[in-house]
């Protein structure tokens, strides 16, 4: 599997329209591999990426039901809500970042060097501090809080504008240009809704565990 990320300019920051420029030129991928522990609900989840020399842009589009979003604080347990996630390893062997955003646009962001589980969580990880995490701009089409659950069909979008400065303190200098390749995976989850489910772009094997970087697939900047 491989996803090709096309270049753009800062106009990508302002648009939250899946079909409007410059997003109409971006390749799309499908987050459609549902784990067997999922409920019968199978939302249609797509993602697109664009980049400029200093930013990575990620947009998700979700045709959903049973949408719930109650965590509103940075670093909250947004994976328990209706949530989309982007895990990315910019430099081989230097750990990965998990960008998790619920339907209301609340962000959880960590840097994980060793995802093996221990008594206190991952073997080696740290939460990205607020002053750095707030440089990631998140826009969503739903309100910050969605409760009670929206049971009817609804389509929602979430977009992240990620500056390279978020990565540099952890993995060193980075440049986005044609020929550069990172590794990543994309996810959809909804643990604490009436119809929980867990979907991925790249397959992750039988274990229900998104934190398996060995399964990440290339995203290539073109």
Can you offer a commentary on this structure?
This protein has 222 residues and is mainly beta. The protein has a single domain, classed as Immunoglobulin-like (Sandwich). It has two helices and 16 strands. Strands 1, 2, 3, 4, 5, 7, 8, 9, 10, 11, 13, 14, 15 and 16 form a 14-stranded mixed beta sheet that branches. The protein has a two-stranded antiparallel sheet with strand order 6-12. A hairpin with a 2-residue loop joins β9 and β10 (121-127). The longest helix has 4 residues, at 130-133. The two termini are 16 Å apart. The mean pLDDT is 96.
CATH architecture, by name, is: Sandwich
Outline type: globular
Unreliable runs, pLDDT <50, ≥5 residues?
Answer: none
Roughly how much helix do the residues carry, as a percent range? Answer: under 10%
Head-to-tail CA distance between termini? 16 Å
Provide a concise account of the structure shown.
The protein has two helices and 16 strands.
Descriptors:
222 residues, mainly beta, Immunoglobulin-like, 14-stranded mixed sheet, two-stranded antiparallel sheet, 16 strands, 45% strand
Secondary structure elements and their pairing?
Layout lengths: L2 E5 L20 E3 L2 E2 L9 E9 L2 E10 L2 E3 L13 E7 L6 E7 L4 E12 L2 E7 L2 H4 L3 E4 L5 E5 L3 E10 L4 H4 L9 E9 L8 E3 L16 E5 L1
Parallel strand pairs: 1-4, 1-16
Antiparallel strand pairs: 2-4, 3-15, 4-5, 5-13, 6-12, 7-8, 7-14, 8-9, 9-10, 11-13, 14-15, 14-16
